[in-house]
Amino acid sequence: MSNRLARVGELLKRELGRCIEREFDFTDALVTVHAVDVTPDLRSAHVFVGVVAEGRRQEEVLRRLASRRSHLQSQMMKRVVLKYTPQLHFHLDNSVERGVKVVGILDELAAEQAERDGAGDENTADWDDDESYSEA
User: Which of 18, 89, 31, 22 is nearest to 60 (CA)?
Assistant: First the structure.
Protein backbone atom coordinates (compact mmCIF):
# COMPACT_ATOMS: atom_id res chain seq x y z
CA MET A 1 0.00 0.00 0.00
CA SER A 2 1.35 3.39 -0.91
CA ASN A 3 2.07 6.03 1.68
CA ARG A 4 -0.74 8.24 0.33
CA LEU A 5 -3.32 5.44 0.57
CA ALA A 6 -2.21 4.70 4.11
CA ARG A 7 -2.54 8.37 5.10
CA VAL A 8 -5.98 8.69 3.49
CA GLY A 9 -7.08 5.48 5.23
CA GLU A 10 -5.91 6.77 8.62
CA LEU A 11 -7.61 10.13 8.06
CA LEU A 12 -10.89 8.43 7.11
CA LYS A 13 -10.58 6.10 10.10
CA ARG A 14 -10.18 9.02 12.50
CA GLU A 15 -13.00 11.10 11.00
CA LEU A 16 -15.40 8.16 10.70
CA GLY A 17 -14.74 7.24 14.32
CA ARG A 18 -15.54 10.76 15.45
CA CYS A 19 -18.66 10.91 13.29
CA ILE A 20 -19.96 7.54 14.53
CA GLU A 21 -19.30 8.53 18.14
CA ARG A 22 -21.08 11.86 17.70
CA GLU A 23 -24.09 10.84 15.61
CA PHE A 24 -24.96 7.29 16.64
CA ASP A 25 -26.29 6.13 19.97
CA PHE A 26 -25.18 2.56 20.56
CA THR A 27 -26.23 2.25 24.19
CA ASP A 28 -25.44 -1.42 24.70
CA ALA A 29 -22.50 -1.77 22.32
CA LEU A 30 -18.99 -0.39 22.03
CA VAL A 31 -18.24 0.49 18.40
CA THR A 32 -14.76 1.35 17.13
CA VAL A 33 -13.30 1.80 13.66
CA HIS A 34 -10.27 -0.50 13.53
CA ALA A 35 -9.05 0.15 9.99
CA VAL A 36 -9.99 1.67 6.66
CA ASP A 37 -8.56 0.22 3.46
CA VAL A 38 -8.86 2.53 0.48
CA THR A 39 -8.70 1.30 -3.11
CA PRO A 40 -5.92 2.79 -5.27
CA ASP A 41 -8.40 4.95 -7.22
CA LEU A 42 -9.78 6.33 -3.88
CA ARG A 43 -13.35 5.58 -4.98
CA SER A 44 -14.02 2.85 -2.45
CA ALA A 45 -13.13 2.36 1.20
CA HIS A 46 -13.57 -0.81 3.24
CA VAL A 47 -14.26 0.12 6.86
CA PHE A 48 -13.46 -2.56 9.45
CA VAL A 49 -15.56 -1.98 12.54
CA GLY A 50 -15.11 -3.64 15.91
CA VAL A 51 -18.29 -4.15 17.90
CA VAL A 52 -18.24 -5.32 21.50
CA ALA A 53 -21.77 -6.49 22.18
CA GLU A 54 -23.66 -9.65 22.96
CA GLY A 55 -25.56 -11.90 20.60
CA ARG A 56 -26.89 -10.60 17.33
CA ARG A 57 -26.29 -6.99 18.34
CA GLN A 58 -23.12 -6.91 16.21
CA GLU A 59 -25.04 -7.53 13.00
CA GLU A 60 -27.61 -4.93 14.02
CA VAL A 61 -24.89 -2.31 14.52
CA LEU A 62 -23.40 -3.16 11.13
CA ARG A 63 -26.84 -2.86 9.48
CA ARG A 64 -27.41 0.55 11.09
CA LEU A 65 -24.06 1.80 9.82
CA ALA A 66 -24.75 0.47 6.33
CA SER A 67 -28.21 2.05 6.28
CA ARG A 68 -26.68 5.45 7.09
CA ARG A 69 -23.82 5.05 4.62
CA SER A 70 -24.88 7.98 2.41
CA HIS A 71 -25.04 10.28 5.44
CA LEU A 72 -21.60 9.15 6.62
CA GLN A 73 -20.20 9.64 3.12
CA SER A 74 -21.59 13.19 3.00
CA GLN A 75 -19.99 13.89 6.38
CA MET A 76 -16.66 12.58 5.04
CA MET A 77 -17.05 14.82 1.99
CA LYS A 78 -17.33 17.84 4.31
CA ARG A 79 -14.40 16.83 6.54
CA VAL A 80 -11.92 15.20 4.16
CA VAL A 81 -11.00 17.00 0.94
CA LEU A 82 -10.52 14.47 -1.86
CA LYS A 83 -11.27 14.53 -5.57
CA TYR A 84 -13.77 11.71 -5.01
CA THR A 85 -15.51 10.77 -1.80
CA PRO A 86 -14.99 7.03 -1.38
CA GLN A 87 -18.01 4.76 -1.21
CA LEU A 88 -17.99 3.17 2.23
CA HIS A 89 -18.31 -0.59 2.71
CA PHE A 90 -18.65 -1.76 6.32
CA HIS A 91 -17.21 -5.06 7.55
CA LEU A 92 -17.27 -6.60 11.00
CA ASP A 93 -13.76 -6.93 12.44
CA ASN A 94 -13.77 -9.52 15.19
CA SER A 95 -10.00 -9.80 15.54
CA VAL A 96 -10.11 -8.61 19.16
CA GLU A 97 -12.63 -11.32 20.07
CA ARG A 98 -10.49 -13.94 18.34
CA GLY A 99 -7.44 -12.73 20.27
CA VAL A 100 -9.28 -12.97 23.58
CA LYS A 101 -10.43 -16.51 22.71
CA VAL A 102 -6.87 -17.55 21.78
CA VAL A 103 -5.50 -16.21 25.08
CA GLY A 104 -8.27 -18.03 26.95
CA ILE A 105 -7.44 -21.29 25.17
CA LEU A 106 -3.74 -20.84 25.93
CA ASP A 107 -4.54 -20.26 29.61
CA GLU A 108 -6.68 -23.41 29.70
CA LEU A 109 -3.93 -25.45 28.03
CA ALA A 110 -1.35 -24.14 30.48
CA ALA A 111 -3.59 -25.06 33.43
CA GLU A 112 -4.17 -28.55 32.02
CA GLN A 113 -0.44 -29.01 31.46
CA ALA A 114 0.29 -27.93 35.02
CA GLU A 115 -2.26 -30.45 36.33
CA ARG A 116 -0.76 -33.25 34.23
CA ASP A 117 2.73 -32.44 35.43
CA GLY A 118 1.49 -32.64 39.01
CA ALA A 119 2.58 -29.09 39.69
CA GLY A 120 1.00 -27.08 42.45
CA ASP A 121 -0.28 -23.54 42.29
CA GLU A 122 3.26 -22.15 42.44
CA ASN A 123 4.11 -23.53 38.99
CA THR A 124 0.87 -22.64 37.22
CA ALA A 125 1.56 -20.73 34.02
CA ASP A 126 0.49 -17.13 34.27
CA TRP A 127 1.19 -15.06 31.18
CA ASP A 128 1.30 -11.77 33.09
CA ASP A 129 3.94 -12.92 35.59
CA ASP A 130 6.33 -14.61 33.15
CA GLU A 131 9.75 -13.20 34.05
CA SER A 132 11.28 -14.22 30.71
CA TYR A 133 9.00 -11.76 28.95
CA SER A 134 10.35 -8.26 28.68
CA GLU A 135 8.61 -5.29 27.15
CA ALA A 136 10.77 -3.44 24.65
Answer: 31
- pLDDT digit string, tens, across residues 62-104: 999 999 999 999 999 998 888 888 999 999 987 777 888 888 8
DSSP letter string, 57-101: HHHHHHHHHHHTHHHHHHHHHHHS--SSPPEEEEEE--HHHHHHH
Q: 35 has which bridge partners? A: 48
H/E element, 51: strand 44-52
Residues 78, 113, single domain; the answer is: no
Residues 32 and 44 in one domain: yes
C-beta atoms surrounding 20 within 10 Å: 21
Order across the sheet with 30-38: list the strands.
Answer: 30-38, 44-52, 87-92
What is the count of structural domains for the chain? 2
At 126 the pLDDT is: 57
Question: pLDDT tens for residues 30-65?
Answer: 889 999 999 999 999 999 998 888 878 888 999 999
Q: Kindly state the DSSP code that residue 119 receives in the 8-state scheme.
A: -
Count how many Cα atoms sit within 13 Å of the Cα of residue 23 in the half-sphere of its side chain.
Answer: 13
